[in-house]
TrEMBL record:
This is PAS domain S-box-containing protein/diguanylate cyclase (GGDEF) domain-containing protein. It comes from Clostridium acidisoli DSM 12555. The lineage of its organism: Bacteria, Bacillati, Bacillota, Clostridia, Eubacteriales. One of its GO terms (biological process) is signal transduction. It comes from the Bacteria. Keywords: Cell membrane, Membrane, Transmembrane, Transmembrane helix. It is found in: Cell membrane.
Length: 812
């Protein structure tokens, strides 16, 4: 009977050992195979993602470049369209008006168009087209008078005051049959369409873009318009229209399936001449144009397949090498290991008197000695811990809040005790907590705080065996609360280290603190990333405070008291802008929530720089203004560029005086805006016998005379006088605040003397003189037209008196 039982026991042992070997092999090989398979799949997926990312990046990058290209063209068109002369020419053309300044305006705008064309290598010409589609002005005079035919859709777009970017145009009657495109900007006057300004662009810029792109071995890029016409391409297969590619391909069908309105960007897979390709298309905003990038799949599939075959071969070799010794090792060590496992199972069930018996003098003998010694210590410590736990439970039962104790082993905190207060804080029953977390106290800490808490505790313990940390706990209901954990480490006589912790709920205080921190951090980030200056005006205290960038730009005190008084006693604000700023701030004081203005402020280099002030009023619950917050933005560069363009548009190209139209506008503005009681005088100055100078000495000599006369006029009249050239040999001057005729006589005499001093270097026999007519405002006219007519009559009378003379209309 005993022998039979032994055989049963022996058979059971052999069965377990066999299963152990089999499972060991399976657990060694299967995970390896799975790991390699996963690696292969991930490798393939990442390669595909990399391919898509590369073609996407190329297409988006080129799309972005083209978008910027179109925006820059539109900006240039906007500048040209906003010049007053542009609208004036269109209105004159559309209405058949006979404008005496037409030739001069044409020349000035033509020069501007020619300079724009020369600066841009891709620009074939700039056209000004009236509302009937007729070219009235061009950087290339051969196109003046020709018709520009746009589609009905493109014309409707212009009539809606929107920019038009056409598809490719390739016609013999347009741009000599060269492949071109048009960027058109509509021009309106008094809410009526007057015409458009066109940039006619060639394909040089786009071909330069696609030729500069290189990605992968056979990556190609093409730019396509809204009709599928290829603008430019680095691919030999995609050169004309996508819809007309003759070689066997699926690009045509795939391309026509795309709804570009819903999906302006996306991946496209197609086949060209039996070669599979993957690409990415990106529609350029506000146009019908699209950038397409593509690359052959084979460039990636062949290396991937080779890598996969190599991985499989290596895997099979590893399995072959590992399996044989692995089986031998498992078989050799299985018996003592099973005995050790059985002892561990009995000890885990609570039988701490059990020991691992092994009498041979080898490695397992050393393991048995160490294991049994460890169990002896565990049994001893268990009795000691039970005593400590009873003492700790008695101590913590009356402490408010949560308490927990942990054993520190190898840098890990193993939960040893948890008070009812801590469980109540978390919302768990003790059995629920034990089932979910066991001894892992750090698992109740919010996941994002765990590493930080471990690091802070370890750093503090290394210095003074105490720690104080704040972190978040995840409660049973999923809510998160902030706590402060005060702990101290204690080592018992056996060298075992414990941490004793008291946890207090600080959630409400922490939420308030975090809101304040986030608010301050947002403000700091915004301030660090902007060159603008944020300011605050406290209305009640009348103080002005600002961001740090103020101190780096202006030599002013950090915070200014009595700002409403000091601002008028300092030269920080340009004196001509103080009134405008005052009006702006008064608007806010009177109830406007938001105002903005442009003023000049003196920087630390004593230079006045243009800034835009944006200010917003903050009102209390009674609707009373108590604070103004705003931003100061540097617009100096933009302002200078705008002034340069304005100066060029307003000035006579020869003398740099105001041209006739601008001179009239400034005089009319003075009459309308300065109020009642103002006075003035209009001088019309005609150079005597100027035609003879041009005819006999040439136009170059005439230009020198006109330039010299212009300089003399600026010397005779004060800075606030309005001095302009009407054209040819006529000049116009308007004097402000004229009190008497005697003053006018004096100025007229100064002018005549100034003309008499003028001479021509080539021939001194030519004497320079002028006839001057003067009309007084408002005595001789309350409008510019009336004043001009009367001054012109006075000129006529002065010439009849023998030239080199002057006449006031009243005397006439």
């Amino acid at each position: 009977m005993k022998f039979k039982m032994f055989l049963i026991y022996k058979g059971a042992k052999m069965s377990i050992r066999k299963k152990f070997v089999i499972f060991s092999i399976i657990l060694g090989i299967v995970p390896t195979c799975l790991a390699v398979s996963i690696c292969i799949v991930n490798f393939n997926n990442k390669n595909v993602e990399m391919i898509k990312e590369n073609v996407t990046t190329v297409a988006k990058d080129q799309s972005s470049k083209l978008d910027e290209f179109f925006k820059q063209n539109i900006t240039d068109l906007n500048i040209a369209a906003n010049i007053p002369v542009t609208k004036q020419l269109l209105v004159t053309s559309n209405n058949g008006i006979d404008d005496k300044n037409l030739k001069y305006n044409n020349e000035m705008l033509s020069q501007l168009f020619e300079s724009i064309q020369k600066e841009q290598f891709f620009l074939d010409r700039v056209l000004l087209v009236n509302k009937y589609g007729i070219v009235i002005l061009s950087s290339d005079n051969r196109y003046v008078g020709k018709s520009i035919i746009l589609s009905d859709k493109e014309r409707e777009t212009l009539l809606k005051n929107n920019i038009v970017v056409t598809d490719i145009i390739q016609k013999k009657d347009f741009n000599n049959g060269v492949k071109s495109a048009i960027i058109a900007r509509p021009i309106f006057s008094e809410n009526k369409y007057q015409g458009s300004i066109f940039n006619v662009i060639n394909m040089n810029y786009f071909q330069k873009i696609v030729n500069s792109v290189g990605f992968f071995k056979n990556g190609k890029v093409a730019i396509v318009d809204g009709k599928g016409e290829v603008v430019s391409s680095s691919s030999r297969e995609v050169k004309n229209n996508i819809n007309k590619i003759s070689s066997p391909n699926s690009l045509y069908s795939q391309w026509n399936r795309i709804d570009f309105n819903k999906n302006p960007n996306g991946i496209i897979e197609y086949n060209m001449k039996g070669t599979d390709k993957i690409g990415y298309y990106s529609r350029i905003p506000n146009t019908g144009w699209t950038v397409l990038s593509g690359v052959e799949w084979s460039e990636f599939k062949n290396p991937m397949n080779n890598n996969i075959r190599n991985l499989i071969a290596i895997l099979m070799f590893i399995i072959a090498i590992v399996t044989v010794p692995y089986i031998f090792v498992i078989k050799h060590f299985s018996r003592p290991l099973f005995k050790l496992l059985e002892s561990i199972k009995r000890i885990k069930k609570g039988n701490y008197s059990d020991r691992f018996i092994y009498n041979k003098d080898d490695e397992f003998g050393e393991i048995a000695t160490a294991f049994n010694g460890l169990i002896d210590k565990i049994q001893e410590n268990k009795r000691h811990i039970e005593n400590k736990n009873r003492n700790l439970q008695s101590l913590t039962s009356n402490i408010p809040g949560g308490v927990h104790r942990n054993v520190l082993e190898n840098g890990e905190f193993i939960l040893d005790f948890l008070s009812g207060g801590f469980l109540q804080l978390l919302g768990y029953e003790r059995r629920e907590f034990n089932r979910m977390f066991g001894k892992k106290i750090f698992d109740v800490i919010y996941e994002k705080d765990r590493e930080r808490v471990k690091k802070e505790i370890n750093e503090q313990i290394s210095k003074h065996n105490k720690f104080n940390v704040e972190y978040r706990l995840v409660r049973k209901d999923g809510s998160i609360i902030w706590v402060i954990d005060n702990g101290q480490t204690v080592k018992d006589r056996n060298g075992k280290v414990f941490s004793y912790n008291v946890v207090i709920n600080i959630n409400d205080a922490k939420i308030a603190q975090e809101k304040l921190r986030l608010s301050e951090e947002r403000y700091r980030i915004i301030m660090s990333q902007t060159e603008d200056i944020i300011f605050q005006w406290n209305i009640i205290e009348d103080t002005f405070s600002h961001s740090d960038k103020w101190n780096r730009i202006f030599n002013e005190e950090t915070d200014i008291n009595n700002i409403s008084k000091k601002i008028y006693k300092t030269d920080v604000i340009y004196k001509d802008d103080l009134k405008k700023l005052s009006q702006n701030l008064n608007q806010i004081i009177n109830g406007e929530e938001y105002e903005e203005t442009e003023i000049r402020i003196k920087n630390k280099n004593s230079q006045y720089i243009w800034y835009k002030i944006r200010a917003t009023g903050i009102f209390d619950e009674n609707g009373e203004l108590f604070r103004v917050i705003g931003v100061i933005i540097n617009i100096n560069k933009e302002k200078i560029e705008a002034e340069k363009l304005l100066f060029k548009a307003q000035r006579d190209s020869l003398t740099s005086l105001y041209n006739k139209g601008i001179t009239q506008s400034i005089i009319e503005e003075y009459m309308e805006n300065e109020g009642e009681g103002i006075t003035g005088a209009l001088f019309i100055i005609d150079v005597d016998n100027f035609k003879a100078i041009n005819d006999n000495l040439g136009h170059l000599a005439g230009d020198v005379v006109l330039t010299s006369i212009s300089s003399m006029l600026l010397e005779v009249f004060s800075e606030d006088a309005i001095v302009g050239r009407m054209g040819g040999d006529e000049f116009m001057v308007f004097l402000k605040n004229v009190d008497s005729k005697e003053f006018l006589y004096k100025k007229a005499e100064q002018l005549l003397k100034g003309f008499r001093k003028e001479h021509i270097e080539q021939n001194s026999k030519y004497k320079i003189s002028a006839s001057i007519g003067i009309a007084m405002y408002p005595k001789h006219g309350v409008s510019f037209k009336e004043l001009f007519i009367n001054a012109d009559k006075a000129v006529y009378l002065a010439k009849n008196r023998g030239k080199d003379n002057y006449c006031i209309f009243e005397d006439a």
